[in-house]
Every structure is written in C-alpha cells, then in structure tokens.
Amino acid sequence: MTYIPISPSEREAMLKTIGVKKIEDLFDSIPSGHRFPQLDLPAALTEIEAAGELEELALGNETVRELISFLGAGAYNHYTPSVVDHILRRGEFYTAYTPYQPEVSQGTLQTIFEYQSLVANLTGMEVSNASHYDGATAVAETVNMAYAQFRGKRTKVVLSPTVHPQYRQTLRTYVQGMSLELAGDDPNADLDTGPERLEALIDENTALVIVQYPDFFGRIYDYTRLIEAAHARGTLVCVAVNPTALALFRAPGQMGADIVVGEGQPLGIPLSFGGPYLGFFATRKQYIHKMAGRVVGETVDSRGQRAYVLTLTAREQHIKRERATSNICTNQGLIALAAAIYLSVLGQTGLRQVAELCYHKAHYAAAELSKIPGFGLCFAEPYFHEFALCCPRPVEEINAHLLEHSILGGYDLGQDYPSLKDHMLIAVTEMNTKQEIDMLVEVLKEASYE
Amino acid sequence: MNIPSNLKYSKTDEWFDPATGAMGLTDYAQGQLSDIVFVEILVEAGDQLEAGMPVASVESVKAAAESYAIVGGTVAAVNEGLSDSPETLNSDPYGASWIIKIEGGDASGLMDAGAYIKYCEERDH
Amino acid sequence: MSDQDRKRTPEMPAPKVVEPTIFDLSAPGRTGVTFPPPDVPTAPLPEALLRADLPLPELAEVDVVRHYMRLSKFNYSIDGGFYPLGSCTMKYNPKINEDMARLPGFAHAHPLQPFETVQGSLALMYQLQEWLKEIAGFAAVTLQPAAGAHGELTGVLIMRAYHGSRGDTKRVKMLIPDSAHGTNPASSGVVGLEILQIPSDERGNVDLPALKAACDDTVVGLMLTNPNTLGLFDENVEEVIKIVHDCGGLVYGDGANLNALLGIVRPGDLGIDVMHFNLHKTFATPHGGGGPGSGPVGVAEHLVDFLPTPLIGVVEEGEGEMPPLFGYFTPAKTIGRLKAFHGHFGMLVRAYTYIAMHGPDGLRAIAENAVLNANYLQTLLRDTYHVPYERICMHEFVAEGRIEGSDVRALDIAKRLMDYDFHPPTNYFPLIVHEALMIEPTETENKGTLDAFAEALIQIAAEARDQPELLHEAPHTTPFGRMDEVKAARELVLCCWLPEDYKEKG
Known about the structure:
The complex is a heterotrimer. Chain A is α/β, with parallel strands linked by helices. In chain A, about 35% of the residues lie in helices and about 15% in strands.
C-alpha cells in the first residue's frame, strides 16, 4: 500500500515540466554501480494484512494487564485516565513539528509552557526545560551542565550508587570523552548507610553530586544536610526524582537542590516496553544558560496578545554548534503534553490520592511479605512504593515460580549489587488490589516451604 | 556606526583601549549579533592570556559568538556587573560594557579606526 | 507577584489573554479524575518528610478537554496542510501506525519483564533491525537512540571507541562539511572532539582539495550529510569516502535525508561506516510537536562490536512451527548504554508497520516521488527565486528568499506564506546560502498542492515588489502575529504559578 497521492497522468505532466523523460533520470548523480539495489524485504502488505500481523506480534507478549505485576525499577504501572490519549490523538498536536514558527504553533508552545510550569511546581524549582529523552539521559546531561557551569575547572562528580543502575551506566557512556573522576559509584559500598556517606567525598574539585529520591530501593531521605555540605564547597547537587512521590514528599527544591531531573513515565505514560518516556529537567534560574534543551518563554505578539516562543535558543546546538552544552534537538514534546494533561486532570487532589494509594499498598505488601519465614525487609528507612525484600532463595527461581501463577515478580537486585544477591525490588502502585497483594503473599509462602 | 579613533581593533571585532587596557565588542559586532541576552566572562583577574584565547561567550536572541583576547597579557580586571546587564553590550559598546582589562598588552599589530572602518565596509558587500 | 507583573510598568497595558493557562483556569476544590479509597489498612505517613503544599491546578475534566481543544486549534499540522520544512521530512503520518503502537500487548509490556514473556516485542525489534540493515546496507543496527542527535552521539562515540581500541589515540578531529546538518558539530563537540569545517565546491559537493588537505592521522572521521542540506547528492561521494578512509578515518552518514535514498542507493554500499536513521522523518512516525523521535544507528562490519548494549538477537533458532526465541546481547566492545531500557519502542512499532506496508517497491516509490515533487517545485520556482546550484535536486532544494528591487527577507516571505495557509519552509539554513528557503515537499503531496504552493510563492514575490509592508507585517490571517522575541529572552518568564491569593478564592 502507498500514501503517495500522485496519479500517473500527474506524474507524466510533472516529469515533462521538469524536462526529463522518466523518473529514473532524476538519479543520475548516484554512482551507477550501486543505483537501484534490489532490497530483500517482504512484499508490501495492505492495511488489513499489516494490522493482522501486528496484532499477532502483540499477542506474543504477556503484559501487566494479563499478569499481576510487582515490577517497577524505573518504569511503573499506573492508571492513565482516558482523556489523556483522546487529547494526544488530535492531529493538530501529534502531526505538528517543533514550534519554530510561533504564529502557527501557539498550541504546542502554550502546552509546553504549562508543562514547564507543572514541572517547576512539582519539583519546587524555578525553571524547567521543554523535556529530555528520559530519566537516564536527563541525569547524564546534568554532568555536562555542571561541567560547563564551572567551565571545566572542576572535574569530579560524586554519584550515589543508589541511583538507578541504568542511569549510572548511561552517565558513564556520556562522559567517556571527558576526563572526569566519578566518585561514590561503587555497587559494593555499604548500601545501608544514607547520604552522609557521600558528604566525605565532596571536595573543592567536585562539580556535582547526584542522588536519587526515592532512591533505587524506594527509600526516602532528607537530602538537606548533604546539599548544605555540597554548597559549602561550591558544589551543585542534582536530585533525580520519581514525580509521583513528589505529591507526598518534600520537593527537592525545598531541600536546596540545584537541579532536579527525573523520569516522567509515571505521569500517565504507557509502559510501552520502555519508551518513549519523558525526561524532565528543572533547575534554578541562574543556571538556565547551561541547561540542555529547548525552553519556552512568555512574550507578546504584534497585536498585544499574550503568547509564547522558544527562547534562549542561542544556547542550543543549531546556533552554538560545537560549543553547545548538549546536542539535543528533538525532545519528547508529545509525551510532555501527555504528562501535562495527566497532571491537569488529576490536579493536586488526584495526584496526592495516587501517591497515597501507592504508599499504603506498598506498606501493606511489605508488612505481609515480611511475615513469611525467610523473607524480610532489607532496609529500615522510610520508603515510598518500592522496597527491597530479602528472599530465602535466588530471585530468578522465585520469579519463575511466581510467573507460573501469572505473577510478575520484582526486579532482581543481585544483577547490579553483589551484596544484594537474593534480594528483590518490589513495586506496588494503585493498580495492585489487596487481593493481588494477598495472592503474591500466598504464592511466596508456598515458595518458602518448598 | 560608531568607531572611536582612540581605540585599536581586531579582525574578530574586539576593541582595545591602549590607555586603560580595556577591551570589548565593537559597535559593528553588537549590530551583527542584534539583541544580546547573555554574556559569560571566561577568565578571572590574574589569568595569563595569549592573544586569540576566548575570554567571553556572548548570546543574542538569534546568534552566539565568542570574544577573544585582543592582545596577550595579564587580566587586570573583569567587568563583574556585565552579566547582569548584557544589553549594555548593545547600548554602550565602548563604555559600560567593557569586558576585561588586560595589562602588558602589545597593541602594535592591531588595526586603527580607519583600517577597521574599511574592514567592516568590505564585509557588508 | 509574578516576574511579569513586577516588570510591567504602569503605562504598559496588560497583554490580551487569548487562552488562559491551566493555572489561570484552576479553582480551589475543583476535581477532575479521582481515585478510590485504599482497600488495604493505611500505614502512618512519615510526617517530617511530607510536603506541606502541592501547588498544582484544580480543574474538572471538561475544563481540561476544552482548554487543550482550544489550544490545538492554534497549531498548524500535517493533518491540516502542506508543511514543506526542509530536512524535516514532514510527510503524512498514517493513522494505522497510531493504532498499532497502542495495541495492549505492546502498550502494557514492562521493559524489564523476563524475555520469555515479551517475545512479541523482541521479534518486532529483531525484524526491524534486520530491515533497517537491508534498507541501508549495514552489518548491524541498534534501535536504542532516542532521536537523530542521540544517534549522532552514538555514532561519534562508536568512531572514537574504534580508534581507541586500536591504540590510535591521537585522532581528535572531526571533519564536517559546511553543507552538513546543524547538529553535527554539537554532536562531536559534546564528546570533546575538535571540529574542522570543509567547504563546498561550486556544484555543491564537498571540496575535494580542501578535504584532502584536512585528512591526516589526527582525523577521527567525516560527518557527511548526503544528500546534503542543499538537497544535492554528492557527485564524488565514493572519492570523498575513499579520501577519508585512506587517512585512517571513518565516515559518518547523517541519515536525516534518507527519504531520498530508499531503494535508490544504500549508504553502506558506498562505504559509509556508520549512520543514524530518523524514524520520525523517513519512516513516518509523527513529530509530536517536537518529539519523541527515534534514531537507530547502523554500522559496517568492523564497528559491530562497539554498538550500544543491548542488541536484540536470536537465542534459539526456530524449528518448524516454533518461532525463534529472541533475547538480549551485549556487543563485545560496547560503548555502553545510551538510555534506560531499549529505545523508543512505540516509535519502532510505527516504523515497522510503515515498512511492512511498503515493501521494497513501495520504499523505492517513496524516494522517487519525494525527488519528483522536489524537482517539480524547483522547476516552478526557479525563475522567481534564485536557486544557487543549477542541478537536479534530491528530496529538497534551497532557494534564496530575496527579490530584486525589494527589501523583503526570507523571514518575511516565510511569514507571508502563512496567510496563504501554508507552513513556511525552513529558513536561514543552510548558512551557506543567503536568505535560504529550504523546501522539502515529501512524497505525500499531490500536484495540485504543489501548484498552489508555487503560485503562492510567485504571488508573494510580486507583493514583495509592490507592497513590501504587507510582507514585513505578515502574517495577517493567523490567530497570532509576530512575536517580541527580545522581550521573551530578556524578561525570561518561563513558568506560571497559582495566584498568591489562590486559596482565599476557595
């Protein structure tokens, strides 16, 4: 099937206007030896056939709809209100380009401005960019930002080992061309001690400290003291957050954080096997010139109307070129819109309800699970909707057993932390009913006695 | 275009005042950049400079540029207030918006006002 | 008091609010979507860690729907009309792709599920890797990069790692032609490489003597956009690649303009070592008002080991009725991970559907008709707007937006096009053409649309001579006029908040 709307007679007329006989004549500048290769691809499908094939493939997955899921670790199963996708599917939003022509892009520009405002309010920060690829890349970009802020004169970054393992891996990929010292990121570190362990690592050469909130194990710490210690040495602090948790817990902005980033997927974005998700990126106004990505600002148009434009564009890659802090261009525009709709329609009441449901259900699950002989909570700190559970047997074995009962077990922490062998990270959200939690407990009870 | 005769000029559109050691962006440069919204001075007092080293980064509504040390020498002073009022680079290019002062600079290789006017005219064609 | 209020002097009238923000529309106590009470016993909350105030707006669902509906009407879109943005490939986005990406089996799969439970997703990704390899002539493809620029970063890191693995550490320079995409210098710059710009010759090709002079043992490689941003296929491409290879460098292909090459030539066959694809350009996944994109990267045999982790591969071959079992693989010398999880899967589903529905002949027809449309428009316009390179173009071309005897600029022409209900072309890029108007019609426009667009541009040229102020003040018919960009950048109002007396209103 094709989406080309040119009829054969139109094509003839167009070729004649151009002054060539046939379409192939337009390709004379292509090296003749390689021109018009025969591509070894399956023959074209019509829409009905393609739909059939894709439906078949989709049925090859068992998802969190068929399975009872306690899997989180950076991607969470939340309820997305119907209204989110209805608005996203407006062609005016999803088939528009980056709003480089503000006179005909105010829909996109105002929604991004509102998104920036929602992110700033949620994180307790002053400014936000128009979005980043995902939580991992947003964390990685904060290193470039801090490095640029100190003009390359500070070359050390303190990275907490309890930041998401894939975020830390991404960060390492990003900085491999820079001569940076990464301190603190030791998976063998004592994971039981809190942020105070990082304080000792901060010195006058430290550009940035990166921590996560809740951390990868779901724990909630007050980072105020750590941030004060960093600021005493002139060091910036980045806090990577779960946005749902911010409906309940103190915003990092209130603790003094300089940069707050995170994964926006919990804000109404489908799991979609890992993407596209939403990196959010907020900071204080004084650092905005070193922040990556597009920014929308308020202004007026020639008719005296309030309007919005992409602003401070000279920071960006297409103008600043090799001196830009980041090369990001395309971002997550439509996903940012989804998050804005989600936050608007839930509002302060709905989002707080979601966060509390997550909290209470996770605490119920933790209480019940730790009653099972051989199982127990690893950490004593307050936590949000995820917790590390010590298991009497290898996690892989337990998860295989759970899967037989259509339960998707937690993330195997031993993969990333040798000291947490036989530890599972359990996530509970508003999607998990009490009955599901009880079932998990029942099946694990069996597992412990087998 | 305002090109004072007491100053010296570079091909990268900086001016230098041999009397005070101050340097900044010329009227021609600010006109090309249009509305300047951000300036970051990249050096500190006491830094040793070689001619041609970047000393400031400037961003306007539409463009980004670097400003280079017009002569070698020691940074004697930095215009600390400039980053709070980058628009003075447009409104007062030879006055309030000096960027740094350089000590021990040798201005002998630089253009005088006449040569610089000619240089600007050439580029406008 | 907001920043804006503080800066507004009493004599300036407050701007007229066309659509209030979601914060302006909020009313205390109003609720939208709410959730049931907990079905478990509640646990005590850690008081010391709680936030006192959650300053988010409060609206009913109907308020939210009407707000975003009104905003959507201020947007120009592909679904609404012709969008000839050069180098952006704004083609029609098939509706079926949207439905496929939202199939529950895809939309609700968690990225960290055991691989046995997500064989549908993995099969799709594996097949897409294979198809992209075949389409562009590469030995392997990663689907992980999130967008074109992210793909460039991936490619540049791979090039660096390749030289590093051979102990060839003095290579620090990236060569970038002046006709390359604007992102290329930044992609090399963020990795810490030096940039050396290579000029174009009088036919718009890479200047060979300049390239030869730049090539030595400090060169990491060349980032080649081909067709370049002038819409021209480099007539010496094989020699360009050979010169770079002869000095030990690698050639990066910027695949943003791949729409011109589908079924026409495979970049890998020409000797390109590494290239990114833009699924949101060539393979019709929607731009979403700025994203998400998807930027898979293909590499030749000698770079396969450096690809990011993980790749999708076959764990166990299929047998008879049994399909193969797919899983994750880590390349031996991988540069690492570029983002969390496996890439923009939702975009991969759309691109898969698009390729499946086109097949080899359909893909070639895309490129042929994209090139036909661009040449047709170029022919209609070249008598009115100077086209600096007299050649058959590929999928796009660049004209100069200046009119003899008028002071109007490309920007004025672009803005005036909106009054004719067309989206303007890309302007002021590439930088090597004065007052550039970069026009890419794509294959999904018919002759009537192209004729109407050309007619509008010819009419505008006449207006530029007779009534230039009409252009200087354009657009006139859009809901918004030209913007005060200086005010935006100087005053920096980047967020709005609930009013200070918000709670008292309730």
